[in-house]
Design brief:
By secondary structure, this protein is mainly beta. The protein is 7% helix and 48% strand.
Length: 502
């Protein structure tokens, strides 16, 4: 439900099969060696054994959506302007150098930043519970030009997200850890059948888990869902130390949707999967920051009774902690959420909507230039279609996030801008009333609409979703003659406006 759903919507034990042939980088560059860690599966894991530059690891994905999933070490040789991973790129120039952000671009590859091949770094991304370790430093490696790709040129897009590997420890000094296992980047690529459109494939979600470390490895126990998609959950992983600061893991998980009523027929009600491959690292001198990525192969069931297969990426991120902190109840996990995730107010959502969308509607190039990627968790923030006619943005700040789409269709442009605020646990009627009062109190604004319950067929039975309030707002952009819409649905305030131009 809601207009934003469509767009929000680790290996020593495992990598015994090596693809014949040398690495793709030769001469003075380190070799990039492809390996097949899962017999009979198309997934490839690329290894770089001797990187003298900035070194990292993460999933490598082809295509803007419904990804072809690979995993790869990453190496940036800044003095040579070369990036190595599953794909190789040269001609990189340092174009931004800030206190915690750096950007390298292949300038001739595109007129605008979002159209250029590039590598970006976000440094110093730490959290309070991991302050004893070096912070998580994230990178993003993007090739939006098909001609620069070696593999899967037909997808028109290759990109990697991951973390920088600095000092590591053979195992964490602490005996316990608190981690978040995130299931994301759903796909049916490289599967025998396609049963859904890419935007309908499952729902990204997190699972809180605890780890207990022993002499030879660790045991991950999944406890409960995190966020608004996954509820009751089960499963775990087995971790093996590789002795070099890295680890391997395999396991499984299952979870029910946190939604208990009001499902649409294609909404996910349960999900399960195997994680046959994962590798990661114990970062910092004490190994207190745990980061890793792996492959998920599973199925999810919809409210309409259909079961759909999928492939996805699993991200494992967390901190080894002292004094039994990891053994606290899941109800205490709010302490692990950064201060930036405190619940916002409806007024703050409206203010951000007005500020963000004014720039998107008037000067989208300036808006895009002001976005720093990757995001706080290393996620890609912007995405470009293969034909370069679409740029989409998903930018989160705590519990408020932007969803922006910029289209070129022939000689016309479409500028879509939405800002969504999350108010989980809030009474929807009260939230809607507060928002309406805020709009009515502002000079020059007019609001219409209200309570608009909707009926759905759920498992053959007719159900009604009562918590829906729909509004139209005039006066935010009088010079453009635009009317914005507002949806207050299931703990979210969703604001939206569109401008079409010749």
């Amino acid at each position: 439900m809601g207009f934003g759903k469509m767009f929000r919507a680790v290996a020593a034990l495992l990598w015994g099969i090596v693809i014949p042939g040398a690495g793709i980088a030769q001469g003075t560059l380190p070799d990039v060696v492809p390996n097949k860690p899962i017999p009979g599966d198309p997934m490839i894991d690329y290894r770089i054994e001797a990187c003298s530059g900035t070194y990292g690891f993460g999933p490598y994905l082809y295509a803007p959506s419904d990804h072809i999933i690979r995993f790869s070490d990453f190496c940036l040789l800044e003095d040579q302007g070369v990036a190595l991973a599953a794909e190789e790129l040269s001609g990189l120039t340092l174009t931004k150098d800030g206190p915690n952000f750096r950007l390298f671009e292949d300038l001739p590859s595109g007129d605008e930043r979002y159209a250029r091949n590039n590598v970006s770094f976000l440094f110093g991304e730490g959290t309070e519970e991991c302050e004893s370790s070096e912070p998580r430093n994230a990178f993003e490696y993007t090739i939006p030009n098909a001609e620069a790709l070696r593999d899967f040129k037909e997808t028109g897009f290759g990109w990697q997200e991951g973390y920088v590997i600095g000092e590591t420890a053979a195992r964490p000094r602490a005996d316990e850890a608190r981690v978040l296992l995130w299931i994301m980047r759903f796909s049916q690529s490289e599967m025998a059948t396609r049963t859904l459109e890419s935007y309908e494939l499952g729902e990204d979600g997190g699972l809180w888990a605890s780890i207990r470390f022993g002499d030879a490895g660790g045991t991950v126990e999944i406890e409960t869902g995190f966020g608004d998609h996954y509820g009751k959950a089960d499963g775990g992983l087995s971790i093996t130390y590789n002795g070099d600061g890295s680890f391997s893991a395999t396991g499984r998980f299952s979870a029910d949707s946190s939604r208990v009523a009001g499902h649409g027929p294609t909404d996910m009600v349960s999900i399960s999967g195997e994680i046959p491959f994962m590798r990661g690292h114990f970062l910092g001198a004490d190994g207190s920051r745990i980061s890793g990525y792996g492959l998920v192969i599973g199925t999810f069931r919809t409210a309409g009774g259909q079961t759909h297969p999928f492939r996805a990426v699993a991200s494992l991120e967390g901190c080894a902690v002292e004094d039994g902190v990891a053994a606290e109840d899941a109800s205490d996990t709010e302490e692990l959420v950064s201060e930036g995730d405190e619940q916002a107010s409806p007024d703050a959502v409206l203010e951000r909507f007005t500020k963000t969308c004014t720039q998107v509607l008037d000067d989208p190039d300036a808006y895009l230039a002001g976005i720093e990627t990757p995001g706080p968790a290393g996620e890609r923030v912007t995405s470009v279609s293969a034909d370069k006619k679409l740029v989409s943005v998903y930018a989160r700040d705590g519990t408020i996030y932007d969803e922006v789409e910029l289209h070129i269709v022939g000689n016309r442009q479409v500028r879509d801008c939405s800002v969504i605020g999350e108010f989980h646990g809030a009474d929807t009627e009260e939230l809607a009333g507060q928002f309406r009062q805020i709009v009515e109190s502002r000079e020059g604004l007019t609001i219409s609409g209200g309570h608009a319950p909707q009926d759905y067929v759920d498992g053959g039975a007719l159900t009604t979703e009562e918590d829906i309030y729909l509004y139209a707002i005039d006066g935010l952009w009088p010079e453009l003659g635009l009317i914005a819409t507002a949806h207050v649905i299931a703990g979210e305030l969703q604001l939206y406006v569109q401008r079409t131009m010749n």
